Amino acid sequence: MAFSLKRLGFAGLTGLLVLASAQVFTDGQALAASKKAKPAPAAQQPAAQAGVVRVELTPTQTSWTKVCGHDKAANKDICYTTRDFSAQADKPPVLAVAVYEIKGDDTRIVRLLMPVGLMLRPGFRFWVDKGQTYDGAFEICFPNGCFAEARVRGPAIDQMKKGTVLNIAVRNQVNNEVSFGVPLAGFGKAYDGPAVDPKVLAAQQKKLQEELQKRAEAERKKLEAEKQAGSSATGGAAPPVAPQKAK
C-alpha cells in the first residue's frame, strides 16, 4: 500500500476531525446550558476552580490498528499504530493517538489529533504512568481539530508498550490544565505485530462510517424532536378570544 509521509501528517486521521468537532460542540452546548442554569459563583470561588481537569478516555475500537506502506517521495517504509478514544463508549472520538515508525530512522513520531479550544503556544506534555515527561507541539489546526506531535526515541515507545496509561496534558482557553488518560492495553502487541490487511482496513472503515452515519441521523432526529416539543410547550396554548362588544 503506497502512501505519502507528508500526507500522513493530516490525511491519516482527517476522518476523525468531524467526529471530534461534533463532540466538542456537544460539550460546549452542554457547558453553556449549565452556565445559564446555575447562578454566578461568588467572587472568591474562581481560585478553587483552577485545578487539573482529568478526563479518562475509553477506546472506540476493539484494538489498536497497525498500518504500513511505502512513501515513494521519501523512498521510505513507514508504519503507524493508531487508535481513537472517546469520553464515553457510545460517543464519537475526541482524541486519536498514532505512533509512527520510519524504517532506518531512530526517531519515532507520536502524533495526536486533539479537540479544538485548547491553548496552542504551551503545546502538550505526555508521560506513561508516573514515568518521564515528554514535550510536544501543535503543528496545524482546522476548524474542527488540531494535530500535535512529538519526536521521541525508542525508550519512550518501550514505556508505552509496557505501560498502563498514557497521560496527555494541555491547557484550555482559561489556562487550566486538562489531562487526558489514554489506556495503553494492547498497544505493544499491535506495535510489534503484523500490519492489518489493507482490504480488512477498508472494510473496517466502511463499517465505521456506516455506524457514524446512523448515529448522526439518530442525533439529528432527536434534536428535531426536542425542538418540536419545546415549540409545542411554549406556543401550543390558544390565544385569548377578544371580548365582543355589547349590542
Share of helical residues: 25-40%
Helix/sheet category: alpha+beta
- H/E topology pattern: HHEEEEEEEEEHEEHH
How many distinct beta strands? 11
Weakly predicted, low-confidence segments: 1-49
How would you describe the shape? globular
Straight-line N-to-C gap: 90 Å
The fourth-level CATH homologous superfamily of the domain at 5-27 and 51-194 is: Invasion associated locus B (IalB) protein
Whole-angstrom Rg = 23 Å
CATH class of the domain at 5-27 and 51-194: Mainly Beta
Q: Please report the number of helical segments.
A: 5
Mean pLDDT across all amino acids: 79
CATH architecture type of the domain at 5-27 and 51-194: Sandwich
CATH topology title of the domain at 5-27 and 51-194? Immunoglobulin-like
Estimate what percentage of residues fall within beta strands. Answer: 25-35%
Largest sheet data? 11 strands, mixed
